[in-house]
CN hydrolase domain-containing protein
Amino acid sequence: MRLFAALIPSRPSLAAALCALRSRAERAHTRMSSSSSLPVAAVCQMTATPDKEANFSAGSRLVEQAKEGGACMVFLPEGLDYIGSSRDETLHLSESLEVTLSAATLTWPGELVSVYRKAHLFDVELTSKGVSLKESAFTIPGPRLVPPVQTPIGKVGLGVCYDLRFPELSSALQRHGAEILTYPSAFTVATGTAHWEVLLRARAIETQCFVLAAAQVGAHHAKRTSFGHALAVDPWGEVIGDCGGSDAGLTLVQIDLQRLRDVRRDMPVQRHRRDDRFYCSLD
């Protein structure tokens, strides 16, 4: 996910939308300190193409919609800036330092405070499903996890798309304080239909975290279509927001950290977990 944070200076419309959202977040933080109102997150989906300008315009519109809906934080999908139709086009469209897929989060003065570079690359040949993709042909995997980041909605742990299939990642983020996990994604229709919701709900249940997963949807070009269904899942594993599988848009969800604390109190899974030696005893 080559997120917009590093591109703000050259994208005035997106920068303006983010600044407005930042102001709303600051006001929301002030209100929350003196009231019981819950912060609102916007989980978005869009259809990126090889046309960067069109993609940034679409992203700007989603940020504006999020602001109008009362959101203090917005989650945009993997491939926000472009999805190329071939390796050569992808490399042509890439810019300096864009050879890795990364998730990024902003601090409210508008500075980039954390970058996570996707660790697990989608190199898959599902011939019976018509899926063939080799991310390692144009992507360098990230070397490490990054600590969860404090945000207006809670502490957010960062993952990207295929990372969703590796529970060790989400467990590590939870142990380091994550309350919300995010997986900006571009799942194929075949893998999304079979696995998307069940994986997101599993990660939420295992870690007792909120899971917010922005998504790509629809046909990007003649060779690739994404599943959509950007989802929000609560710490009990209930789906609390779904953008559907056809159109760009967003879902607005309240992040109730008391709900998270109640779930963890009533079912103290982390206290019941054995030490690492137990789980390695078969090695």
About this structure: The first strand starts at residue 40 and ends at 46. Residues 77 and 184 are 4 Å apart (CA to CA).
